[in-house]
């Protein structure tokens, strides 16, 4: 298999979703050093955004204190936009998020994005531990968003300082149609998590575009779509390193998440999971929103994805155990794009 691509993708802006992977045998300190290194490379390669996601009680993800990690990355870079993809708003007081992101934007003006999600990003016991009570939840998300917007606008009786008057783009994140419709009604940009919800990608994007109402911020829909990409110099190498991603999904579907494991052979993987578990994992990371392979394979996969989704931006999630291989994956995609 050739390691050279036969052409370049005439594409859309590229961004990165960093789940700050905690690797088996590694540490959180190592994870954050790797995130800084990746963000600095991404900036040099021309990636537009670098987002981190809020998860809790997840042995393989170190970005639970999302706002702190965003500040760490923004402080180590100069121009790339850094943000949350996303903050799970029901886990927090809206005032707290307004103050945190107001502070971040004051420190790094014009570089901070705030993506909002309505899921807890964790299990039920952890949700309870985060909120202390269950008086609020995902169903209250639209009201929490309005409260947050009031803090940024300075129209609330309580003032968010910093926060009031800060121009921070709010994105709505989703893996179904609910946030798509909310984003459309507010004339806001929408980010869809196709990397773990491939079957709802096109329906959700249709809901967003069909219901979009122009706003002061946007006069037409703007959809960012996240997909898994694992690129290597050969198809065989990419398939091998992708087993870490498959193991991660396997653990999640079994309800036993673990630190990101090193890759294993396909034979070893087959010995671990049942035929049903394999089917479940492959449905979650199908070939539409998970592209694995050499430059040519990745090129054709991304071109098909852009054609089918009509995405305005692509955000890449590359779950790879070895940091150098992870850097190489993002470098390959950068080399493919115009």
TrEMBL record:
SUPFAM superfamilies: Bacterial luciferase-like (SSF51679). The keyword DNA damage does not apply. GO terms for molecular function: oxidoreductase activity. The keyword Oxidoreductase applies. InterPro entries: Bact_Lucif_Oxidored (IPR050766), CmoO-like (IPR019949), Luciferase-like_dom (IPR011251), Luciferase-like_sf (IPR036661). Keywords: Oxidoreductase. It comes from the Bacteria. Pfam families: Bac_luciferase. Its EC number is 1.-.-.-. NCBIfam families: oxido_grp_1. To bacterial alkanal monooxygenase alpha and beta chains. This is LLM class flavin-dependent oxidoreductase. It comes from Aciduricibacillus chroicocephali.
